[in-house]
Design brief:
The protein is an alpha+beta fold and 774 residues long. The chain is 53% helix and 14% strand.
């Protein structure tokens, strides 16, 4: 028994000795390692103190610049093999040596820690006007010859670091207010960046990767301490306090962009209808729209031959640049249409390209620390199309749509399918027209264009193509708020009940619950289909593509020499399936580009507004410059068009006067001109009492009143003059190339330059300093 007791004591001693000299490996992938008790460590946690020169320099920056946010880099001294300091960094720490200090003022709260890390880029560096940088803060490790553990990211280690950093604020050089022991900064925060690895294991993160949802995986975590006035001392720092992101900046912008995306097709179709109004299109329903099409052709002829004074500018600045392509448009209309669609396809991601340019150099924090997109993508942060700046394919796919090739694959899919589906068709306007809804009496999901316009109480006149599609999308939404639609829906659904009840009571009882479920689902589908124009637009495009393919199939099968494989149903089934999948992927990629562009613009706007609210004195000059510049641009465009509106008004006025003056006589270059002659049966001509004999043939050649060509036309109470006459007036009195040259250096531009000269000087000095010139 004594031997057993002695052996147990020896084993316990050996085990205790091994534990004394071992270094405990701290798990790095979980935040709950911070809750490990210090007794579980074989070695003690390192103690720190701030070097005197770092303390003095930090204090001088606070007193001189009075910043609201301070960035600094941690550096550790005495970390060597001699003192056996076991230095590790937890994987959850993002840029572990980059720390921040801020405080909470008496009124309000500085929003730095609740905003994104890239707020400096989003605010065009304005938010940094109240921030300062310290190259480094040197921490000495207290030691007594024994080894210690320094695990950065562990709450205990971070608390020890914050306890040492507290001396940067609480020291003998600290300024007091009113000669009392009352500190200037009574609520202080020392913060660092951490990653939330648990968020990556959720389905929300997976959806964010494929739908570009702004899910902040890297946030601030802070150590805070504050001054207790009762005890007249600062509290001990408390670390591990997470700072949630400003939800309006991230989630609010995305949700608002999603809502706008649902109704954006209406605005897009109206805009395209203006650009492509010269494209030829055949109405989808020849029987019902013969008179309407004739009316449309008459209106198109009026628009082509006459210019009307209807309040809109007859020639704006954009039309002035497009005038050079008029000859090409008349000779090659299909080519111009395809070039226009190609340019729109290339220009749609322009805001994404702009954001890439702004993020290409990363976020310069302090000293040699630069946070790039590569650093975020390496941690799997959701960065959307900006992930193309990650540097390598692996990191690109971590940040966006990994199974679809990442941002490169999405861009490739967008451009390749866009060329196939948008640019390649001879007339996309005809594809849209072919997709117009047709009426079916057995379901409220199939209302014709006439029924939709009538239930929405819209004007029945619609131009084929984009204009009709935009009107249908609007009418679908409006008719949900009218009683005619719901009466029509109930009438169709009650008609089904009556059909089943005709087979007897048993059939009616069996069909009743099934029909109730079917009608409820159908009503929900009506709300989605009619209430969201984006869904309507997708169905129009899909249906139009299928009908266009059916027409092509019919044309191909008419030729006997066509390949047999092109005449089989299996081939065309594969083609239709490919078109449906291609349209789905293209709309998916285009929607993500729109969302990312809108979210980026919203973040820039909100961040700049926050900066203006919290720092009005620093940002007033920039705000003034932007407002004046925007006003100048719109005023410039308006001035250009107003001159031609005035010219058109003068031409219309004189043309109306000519039409009103019957038998108007003028004399020019030895010719006596009698215009607007509306008299009939002219037998002789008398001038100053002298009769002039005119042969009967010459008298008969004088046109009668019905043959006199009027100088003006009227449409919807607006008078217009021939377009040829208006073009002559432009060349004679207001040439476009001269007007563009005169308008640009106008007096408004000189005034804008004079008002913003001090701000432009500051911007110039900033760039000179950036490039090291001064």
């Amino acid at each position: 028994m004594s031997f057993i007791i002695y052996f147990s004591i020896i084993v316990y001693g050996l085990m205790n000795g091994v534990q004394t000299e071992a270094v405990v490996v701290v798990p790095h992938d979980r935040q709950n390692t911070s809750e490990i008790k210090e007794s579980s460590y074989a070695l003690e946690i390192c103690e720190f103190e701030v070097a005197n020169h770092s303390r003095n320099y930090f204090d001088s920056r606070l007193e001189l610049l009075k910043p609201s946010f301070m960035k600094f880099k941690l550096e550790f001294a005495n970390v060597s093999v001699r003192y056996k300091v076991n230095k590790t960094v937890q994987a959850r720490m993002f840029q572990p040596y980059l720390w921040f200090w801020t405080y909470k003022p008496v009124e309000g709260n500085f929003p730095y820690v609740i905003m994104n890390v890239d707020s400096g880029i989003l605010s065009f560096d304005l938010i940094n006007s109240q921030t300062s940088e310290v190259d480094y803060v040197l921490l000495n490790i207290k030691h007594n010859g024994a080894s210690c553990v320094m695990d950065i990211g562990n709450i205990t280690t971070n608390t020890k670091i914050a306890d040492a950093l507290q001396s940067l604020i609480v020291n003998e050089n600290m300024k007091m207010k009113d000669d009392m022991r009352q500190p200037v900064y009574d609520k202080n925060y020392f913060c660092y960046l951490v990653e939330n690895p648990e968020l990556k294991r959720t389905w929300t993160y997976t959806l964010a990767l494929y739908f570009n949802y702004p899910l902040p995986t890297i946030n601030f975590e802070c150590c805070h301490f504050f001054y207790k006035y009762i005890k007249e001392r600062f509290t001990d720092p408390k670390c591990g306090i997470p700072k949630e992101k400003w939800s309006l900046l991230n989630h609010g912008s995305y949700i608002l962009g999603l809502i706008i995306l649902m109704y954006f097709p209406v605005l897009m179709l109206q805009w395209i209808a203006i650009l492509a109004k010269d494209e030829l299109v055949e109405s989808y329903d020849y029987d019902s729209y013969v008179e309407l099409d004739q009316c449309c052709h008459y209106v198109e002829d009026l628009d082509k031959d006459f210019v009307f004074l209807d309040g809109s500018s007859p020639l704006n600045l954009f039309d002035a640049f497009a005038r050079n392509w008029t000859g090409l448009k008349e000779r090659f209309p299909v080519l111009v249409s395809r070039l226009r669609r190609l340019f729109s396809l290339l220009a749609m991601p322009i805001i994404v390209y702009l954001s890439m340019y702004m993020y290409k150099d990363g976020i310069k924090e302090v000293n040699d620390i630069v946070i790039t997109v590569h650093d975020f993508a390496e941690r799997g942060a959701v960065f959307g199309f900006l992930g193309i700046l990650a540097g390598n394919t692996t990191n690109m796919q971590k940040s966006f749509a990994p199974n679809l090739g990442g941002p490169v694959g999405m861009f490739t899919m967008y451009y390749s399918l866009g060329l196939l589906l948008v640019v390649l068709p001879r007339s996309l306007k005809q594809v849209v027209e072919n997709g117009m809804p047709t009426g079916r009496s057995w379901s409220p999901l199939f209302f014709s264009v006439d029924e939709v316009l009538r239930m929405a109480m819209f004007h029945p006149h619609t131009e084929p193509g984009y204009h009709r599609a935009a009107t249908v999308c609007k009418a679908h939404f409006i008719m949900l708020f009218t009683g005619r639609f719901w009466k029509r829906l109930l009438h169709i659904q009650m008609k089904r009940f009556r059909v089943f009840c005709n087979f007897g009571r048993c059939a009616c009882a069996i069909a009743l619950p099934v029909m109730l479920v079917v009608n409820m689902l159908e009503t929900l589908l009506c709300l989605v289909y009619y209430g969201i124009p984006f869904v309507t637009f997708i169905f129009i495009l899909t249906k139009g593509s299928v009908k266009s393919l059916i027409r092509q199939k019919t044309i191909i099968q008419r030729y006997r020499n066509s390949f047999m494989i092109l005449r089989t149903p299996v081939t065309w089934g594969i083609v239709w399936g490919f078109i449906l999948i291609a349209f789905s992927l293209f709309i998916y990629a285009g929607s993500l580009i729109f969302l990312e562009s809108f979210v980026f613009v919203s973040k820039v706007t909100l961040t700049c507004l926050v900066v203006i609210v919290f720092m009005p004195s620093e940002t007033f000059g920039y705000l003034f410059f932007v407002v004046i510049f925007v006003y100048y641009v719109f005023h410039l465009i308006g001035d250009f068009g107003s001159g031609y509106t005035e010219l058109l008004a003068i031409g219309v006025e004189h043309s109306i006067n000519l039409d009103m003056h019957v038998n108007h006589v003028t004399y020019q270059d030895g010719t006596l001109d009698v215009s607007n002659v509306r008299a009939t049966n002219i037998r002789t001509l008398r001038i100053n009492g002298t009769c002039i004999d005119i042969p009967e043939g010459s008298l008969a050649s004088i046109r009668v009143q019905s043959d006199v060509k009027r100088k003006t036309r009227q449409r919807r109470n607006a008078h217009g003059i021939p377009r040829d006459l208006f073009e002559y007036l432009i060349k004679r009195h207001r040439p476009v190339h001269i007007q563009v040259r005169i308008v640009l250096p106008s007096k408004n531009g000189v005034l804008l330059f004079c008002l913003c000269l001090p701000l432009l000087n500051n911007i110039l000095l900033f760039f000179l300093k950036e490039f090291g010139v001064v």
